[in-house]
Amino acid sequence: MSKKMLSMILVAAVCVTVGHILAQPGGSENPNPDSQTPPPRPERSMDQESRRNRPPRGENAAALKPPLPQNETEKKILAVLEEMNRSESRGMMNVSPTDGRLLRLLTESLGAQQVVEIGTSNGYSAIWFSLALRTTGGKLITHEIDAGRAALARKNFQRAGVDGLITLVEGNAHETVSQLEGPIDILFLDADKEGYSDYLKKLLPKVRPGGLILAHNTNMAKPMKEYLDAVTTDPALETLFLFQEGAGIGVTLKKRE
Predict the structure, then answer these.
(1) What is the pLDDT of residue 192?
(2) 140 three-state secondary structure
(3) Less CB within 10 Å around the terminal CB: N or C of the chain?
(4) In Å, how far from its chain's centre is CA 8?
(5) What's the CA angle centered on 225, arms 125 and 119, to 5 degrees?
(6) CA distance 191 to 198
(7) What pTM does this model have?
């Protein structure tokens, strides 16, 4: 190959390389790959921009609106619940107002006639159940081991005017549930977490097909492992976990055959 031909090839190669560099974003201004100056960002599409400006998940203003009373009776019950949440919630380990609204919604939509609650505390969740039971004609049987909390719950039931819908059983629920008769439409567990599996074994046969088992504090996975395994490995059950950003509620359906 002649020197003239070699020179022409080298010139062509240099031109191609320079052209490639200049074609890169910012290449004409920042050809040094080690420079700290980043290349300019591509323009956002309108769709990308609208997604970026959406409020974070969970900040839906409509979700923060309180429940609206349909009549004076409901207004009185909701007022008691609001006052309890404001002044009695500390140390009671109650459900949140959102959790309570879910209890009411499921109970009323199911037309529940018998609801069983394990863990009354001061009666907060029981009163949410009563909002539904007063319209379905059903009753609640709630179990509480602590006499002081049971006494407070009875006072709250009277204040809300729902004491006629509720039977409060004092004592160790692991023993007292043996006296229950079915069919149970909704079973709500909100007591000793290690004991959930025992309650399930004893009461699942009494839950009617199509009935629900609701378990509070499902984010406490370690003490509830046996229960969580039971409701997620039994083909006769279907379980969904809600409100995982909070305490968590497991909703388990006892399937119809």
Answers:
(1) 96
(2) strand
(3) C
(4) 73
(5) 20
(6) 12
(7) 0.76
